[in-house]
What does this fold into?
Amino acid sequence: MDFWERMDEVFGPSYARSWAHDIVLTPLGVTVDDAIASGVDTKDIWRAVCATTEVPGVLR
It folds into this structure.
């Protein structure tokens, strides 16, 4: 499962894009969109998403 599939599974397809644009990931200090634009590996971004929210264990 790729990064956006995981985001869609956790937040829903519409809200995932909004969340990625608006929420600053504390471990990275930037939003998902900014992290992707800066070239941060999506595995590291996903770990930050999991640390910021309560992602179900099966999707971690």
